[in-house]
Amino acid sequence: MYRSVGMIAASVLVGCLISHAASPSKKTLAAIRLSSPWNKLSDLSDEQKSQLDKIHRKSREEIKAIEQQAKADMMAVLTPQQQAELREMEDQTVADKKLKAGEKDRADATTLPAEDR
User: Fold this and answer.
1) C-alpha separations of 95 from 50, 87, 89, 106 in Å
2) CA 98/CA 32 separation, integer angstroms
3) What is the pLDDT of residue 94?
């Protein structure tokens, strides 16, 4: 019995995923935010918006992969000491950004009116 329930549940889940992927919902289309200059076109159809979004997302993934490969290739040129130095610089940059963001949050909390917090 449990096996039958599991199979039914799996079938329903797969069906939902397929139908969702096949036809983007209005909420999904409303959530698409195109970058400039595409977002300034006034007569794009929902299908065009969806296609532009898909192309943009794919290109961002490809760019990220290229950047990761380039970094790996560059790290391979460095000595272990240089790699360690670079990691320390990167860690410091991340820590500085977190500190700056925390300071901004604290400043906002003390300067914003109570109803905006």
Assistant:
1) 37, 12, 10, 17
2) 29
3) 95
Contact 56, 32 (CB under 8 A): no
Which residues, 6+ apart, have CB-to-CB distance to 39 below 8 Å?
33
CB count, 10 Å around CB of 72?
Answer: 9
pTM reported for the whole predicted model: 0.55
**Residue recorded with tokens 């959530």:** 31
Block means of pLDDT (10 residues each) for the chain, length 117 residues?
Answer: 48 49 55 88 91 95 98 97 97 93 78 61
Taking CA atoms, 60 is separated from 29, 44, 57, 90, in Å, by: 19, 22, 5, 22
